Amino acid sequence: MQLLSATRSLNSQPLPFLSFSHSISLPLPLPFLPNPSKSPHFPSLQIHCIDAAQPFDYESHLKTRYIQSTSLKIGILGFGNFGQFLSKTFLRHHHTLLAHSRTNYSDVANQLGVSFFSDPNDLFEQHPDVVLLSTSILSTEALLQQLPFQRLRRNTLFVDVLSVKEFPRNLFLKYLPPDFDILCTHPMFGPESGKDSWAGLPFVYDKVRIGEEESRVRRCDKFLDIFAKEGCRMVEMSCMEHDRYAAGSQFVTHTMGRVLEKFGVESSPINTKGYETLLNLVENTKGDSFDLYYGLFMYNQNALEQLERLDMAFESIRKELFGRLHQVYRKQLFGDQEQEEMDEKFSQKLLGNGSLIQPPLDNVRQEGS
Ligand code: NAP
User: Fold this and answer.
1) Cβ neighbours for 131, distance < 8 A, ≥ 6 positions apart
2) CATH class of 70-241
3) How do residues 248-293 score in pLDDT, each as one tens digit?
4) Where is this region: Disordered (predicted)?
5) Is the CB of 79 under 6 A from ligand 1?
6) 118 CA distance to ligand 1 centroid (A)?
7) For the whole prediction, is pTM greater than 0.85?
């Protein structure tokens, strides 16, 4: 133990009391006194200045002060699947967490070390620095309309983690008091894909409205720091851009995962790497609620177009397959003669008007080879 300011006087006998320069004597329980018979150089301790900061004390003070300066009081609204998942990491970063949800999650919250409030009034009266919205996309507007904003501090930071971005951005601008700061975010991972680590996983954010005061800028940075320190790939982009990209990637991924789940993919003893990828896709998406998926569809204006494109792509593949099958079938019925006549007709047309003509679906001869 590093009682560095203590002086040592070697070989003195065990003392029943330690004496201090301020003439304070403290009884020291015998088990804590070193045994002089085993340690010939055992020191007696004299602390000269009991009220001076000791190094071990100083370090812990510094640590506490550092944690206080970087920690936030975060109120989570919507303590379901994703809210709980996020809170576990927030707690590791020494933030104070409060939560509210329509379901009573007191027990889960207790186990995690989160204070749970059944009434948002009570949570807001705790004056969190940050209010984080982690409710379903579908319930967001109804919830925002009921929140008692007047109980919060005037410049609270509102953050959302919804999987669509333009929709909550517009709702925040519509319903939040003008003094509130707004940060729209999308951690592009979930309890399944981010269960081991967040390192390298994309975190999209848009500082929609952050006041210029240093404290407000710092508060927003502290929040973003949680994800940066976890190693997320921090991507700053507008909500509109996010939705455009996400419809083409995230919505399509969820759709394929759901289609394959309905289709019923199952592991087999001869899984290929590609098939394993499909199984993982189903695993990653099946834990998400249908509300979430429906929200991706309903509240991203680009999603419908992507669904239609998927439909068309599927139809086109089907046509290609059936087209070839049809050719093989015709060949079996009519032999090579018909094919030769058709080839001749096409080459005449091409020579006739000079324009390129798409040949009929691949040549039947290939099929036979
Ligand atoms: P979710 O089904 O999208 O949302 C469930 C949450 O919404 C629960 O906290 C639930 O509260 C609350 N909720 C649902 N209907 C409500 C209503 N009518 N009134 C009040 N609260 C209501 O599933 P989630 O996975 O937890 O996602 C939460 C948010 O995070 C969503 O906006 C989602 O887009 C986003 N997100 C999710 C993931 C993910 O991988 N899961 C990833 C990134 C972002 P109760 O539990 O109390 O009923």
Assistant:
1) 74, 75, 77, 124, 152, 156, 157, 158, 159
2) alpha beta
3) 999 999 999 999 999 999 999 999 999 999 999 999 999 899 999 9
4) 350-369
5) yes
6) 16
7) no
